[in-house]
Amino acid sequence: MRTFFWKNSTDEQRQAALKRPAQANKGDLTAKVAEILAEVKANGDTALRSFTAKFDNVELTALEVSSAEFAAAKKSVGVGAREALERAAANIEKFHVAQIPVNQSVETESGVVCERQFRPVSRVGLYVPGGSACLPSTVLMLGVPSRLAGCELRVLCTPPRKDGSVDPFILEAARLCRIDKVFKVGGAQAIAALAYGTESVPKVDKIFGPGNSWVTEAKEQVASAGAAIDMPAGPSEVLVIADANANPVFVAADLLSQAEHGPDSQVVLVTDSEEMVTKVQAEVAAQLKQLPRETIAAAALEKSLSIVVNTIAEAIAVSNQYAPEHLIVQVDQAARYKDRILNAGSVFLGPWSPESAGDYASGTNHVLPTYGFARAYSGLSVDSFLKQITFQELTEKGIQGLGETIEILATIERLDAHRNAVSVRLAALNQAKEKA
Amino acid sequence: MRTFFWKNSTDEQRQAALKRPAQANKGDLTAKVAEILAEVKANGDTALRSFTAKFDNVELTALEVSSAEFAAAKKSVGVGAREALERAAANIEKFHVAQIPVNQSVETESGVVCERQFRPVSRVGLYVPGGSACLPSTVLMLGVPSRLAGCELRVLCTPPRKDGSVDPFILEAARLCRIDKVFKVGGAQAIAALAYGTESVPKVDKIFGPGNSWVTEAKEQVASAGAAIDMPAGPSEVLVIADANANPVFVAADLLSQAEHGPDSQVVLVTDSEEMVTKVQAEVAAQLKQLPRETIAAAALEKSLSIVVNTIAEAIAVSNQYAPEHLIVQVDQAARYKDRILNAGSVFLGPWSPESAGDYASGTNHVLPTYGFARAYSGLSVDSFLKQITFQELTEKGIQGLGETIEILATIERLDAHRNAVSVRLAALNQAKEKA
Questions:
Q1: How many CB pairs under 8 A join A and B?
Q2: Strand A112-120 with A104-109, pairing
Q3: d(Cα A13, Cα A359) in Å, to the nearest integer?
Q4: Do B362 and A116 touch (CB under 8 A)?
Q5: Pick the catalytic residue: A69, A237, A283, A325?
């Protein structure tokens, strides 16, 4: 962990310190992903089967998970795991159900009623990565809010394991969320299937979920061709703010729980205590040795950063500039800093709120904006699975009252047909009046 | 206007009829825009001045509009226009102020408090096109909700006129919305300036507003490099549903008010009355001749479509499949169909609700999803200028209650450091208990 002293640095040095590493050079990834997308678009299920054979080393006949497979998964997960999944799902539901928005109706002028109504995105695709970790928690984070939003069709894609099955915890989580269909397809080919549709996989209106660089690149490519996606993605990251009284054991554990995600994970410590840096570094070194994913975490830590500031208020300002995906605030009375936090995905306050609480079970969503996107993007919520439609209805009185204003503005903009759409109506009302 | 009979058609024919024309082949637009972006990124204001000289035929010294120019604009617009702008702004404010969301706090378990709070996107860039129409209404549609959201810095870019000035109506609308800075920069170079920042134009966190194909391409390019934008864009469009009792004069006027936007505007009529098609076509022909923008509207109408269906319910289903930017429903008791409308940007109900009402002054926003994007995207609202941050704080009791669940789930996912972040805390609490 490199240490950076905020106080004696220029603005340029500060910006450089907070700059995330450039996303790894894509090399021929762009072309390779484009090829996969084109192939799936052209050849549907045949292409999915052949990419699954190539990348996942499995020859599949049925792409869709059968009800027998769901039943077997339910049996195999064990009571403890099922109860943990159910409890997490219940908390996620409690937090997300409160997000369901209310339709709104405003009479802006007499006879002019404007409304905003919410509708679910009809068909949604949920991607759950496989690879080095199996992630049933991600199934819950996508499955619960999409169910609450009322999406008509919810399709989940996840790569099969080497024996052609899907991890039973993933299937059990999908069952708990009442996902409609689960397909054994991963990588860029899964994104292509959801964007274009194949014989088996239905085309969806919006694609959600995290993934590796292939999935991220595929989401970007289908998005620039018009598909809707949840948000742009970069490596996962945490920024921990700790004061002199923070527990270095907790701080180190939190930094490591981010570092173990991948060698490109971003880990930043900001503290007003130089001593804390030393303590945390010692604790990180000690805890690191115990971890099965030691190599991954060590690689991430090599590029990590400790920043020494003068005050906790300054630490918050540094965090706002960085806009972290996860922000952990381990300082005295952490909650009093809430209002000052302007850019972050999800925030963990005080000593008893590890990031893992929100990653799994407290109720907040763990699909969050990375790479500084928290300046303009939000984490997943029920809103992500809804869209808004506005309605308006003017009465005769309404158009008579507002008509001239519209005519004046259309005249200013030299859009005569816009003006005329009002004028023909006002003329009709005048004629009717004269007749009466 | 081509007529299509829904009843006797196959699904393929129906899909083909509703298919929007492919976006015009970009040709070398992609490369040209990329060049402009790179040039502005490298040379800042110098590049902006040189592109403004090239594309707008103006040599500018100051890029920013001065307070003297604002004062002169205010004087020149006249009372009638100012009052119309003020009334439109007041209605837009009334409708949008009701959208300001409320923070939310949920105790999902004893000692586990999860919150969602809203924060403005700090710096926003608002683009207002120039070209064939000057659009002060767009200033209001971007300016009012961004003000209500509380964005810290709101920057507007719009191309200068040939004499180096900005249209006074645009400046007056910007003053009404208390926009912080207005720059005389248009086209792809304006989007580049907002995305990267120059000596004069500040870099922003999110870019909003409609534009021509250069602006749209520039927004797409900066978005795939990580800038946030409001929504993807395509040609403007309307779908009008009319029953046998609709007034063909109104229907024709509404179709034309869309057609005059541009030769690529999409205009669709759906009706359960074949006679209505004939009546509307006659009216369109008659009204078209009166329009100064006749050539533009005629070009759009050439590619337009009338669809004959059996029932109004079927017409709504056709509209849901098309997902129009604007939907006008001129049928008996139009409001009763509201719940069935699933995909649309903004909906106009009944005979007295022309699209121009919402384009200008009723209160709804006119920046809306086009090209079928209404299936997954919403029109602009206060939400577009906000993002959400989640917070959580667990008490000792909270982590003691939820800790085991988190540990089980982290174990399933084989993320030991995630589990350890909980375990070290539970251990500390146990030690403290034993000591006591």
A1: 411
A2: antiparallel
A3: 33
A4: no
A5: A325
| H runs (alpha helix) in A57-113 | 67-76, 79-97
Count of alpha carbons within 13 angstroms of residue A37, beta-carbon side:
24
Q: Which residue has the tokens 């996620």?
A: A92
The answer, yes or no, to whether residue A24 has pLDDT greater than 70, is no
Contact A428 B349 (CB under 8 A): no
Determine the residue among A83, A261, A408 to mutate to test chain B binding: the one whose Cβ has the most chain B Cβ atoms within 10 Å. Answer: A408
pLDDT band per the 50, 70, 90 thresholds, residue A234: confident
Among the partner residues B257, B344, B425, nearest to A389 by beta-carbon distance: B344
- Smallest Cβ–Cβ distance between A84 and the set B116, B388, B409 belongs to B409
Mean pLDDT computed over A54-80 = 96
B412 and A81 within 8 Å at the Cβ level: the answer is yes
Residue numbers in A near B426 (CB within 8 A): none
Place of tokens 């900066």: B222
List domains and CATH numbers for chain A: 26-101+120-231 (3.40.50.1980), 234-378 (3.40.50.1980), 395-435 (no CATH)
* Low-confidence winner among A25-34, A43-52, A146-155, B49-58 (lowest mean pLDDT): A25-34
Question: Quick one: what percent of chain A has pLDDT higher than 90?
Answer: 89
Catalytic site residues of B?
325-326
- Residue B191 corresponds to which tokens in the numbers above? 């989007």
| Helix (H/G/I), strand (E/B), else coil: B122 | coil
Partner-chain residue, chosen from A119, A137, A402, that has the shortest CB–CB distance to B361: A402
Q: Determine the Cα–Cα distance for residues A99 and B103; give it in Å rounded to an integer.
A: 10
Chain A residue nearest residue B103, CA to CA: A99
Name, in order, each residue with C-beta under 8 angstroms of B228's C-beta and a sequence gap of 6 or more: A373, A375, A376, A377, B121, B205, B206, B207
Taking CB atoms and an 8 Å limit, are B392 and A346 in contact across chains?
A: yes
A252 neighbors A283 (Cβ within 8 angstroms): yes
Q: Which of A133, A338, A415 sits opposite B391 (nearest CB)?
A: A338
The yes-or-no answer on residue A418 being catalytic is no
Percent of chain B, pLDDT > 70?
99
CA distance B344 to A294: 51
Predicted-assembly ipTM surpassing the 0.90 threshold: yes
CB-based contacts of B239, cutoff 8 Å, min separation 6: B268, B269, B270, B319, B322, B324, B326, B327, B328
> CA B278, B282, B287, B290 torsion: positive or negative?
positive
Q: Which residue of A has its CA nearest to B387?
A: A378
pLDDT digits (tens, 9 = 90+) for B47-90: 999 999 999 999 999 999 999 999 999 999 999 999 999 999 99
Mutual angle of helices A29-56 and A187-196, in 10-degree steps: 100
Would the pLDDT of A107 be above 80?
yes
B412·A169 Cβ contact <8 A = yes
Query: Which tokens sit at B25?
Result: 């082949």
Q: Are A73 and A172 in contact (CB under 8 A)?
A: yes
pLDDT tier for residue B132 given thresholds of 50, 70 and 90: low
Nearest CA in chain B to A292: B416
Q: Do B352 and A84 count as a contact with CB atoms less than 8 A apart?
A: no
- pLDDT 10s digits, A282-315: 999 999 999 988 998 999 999 899 999 999 999 9
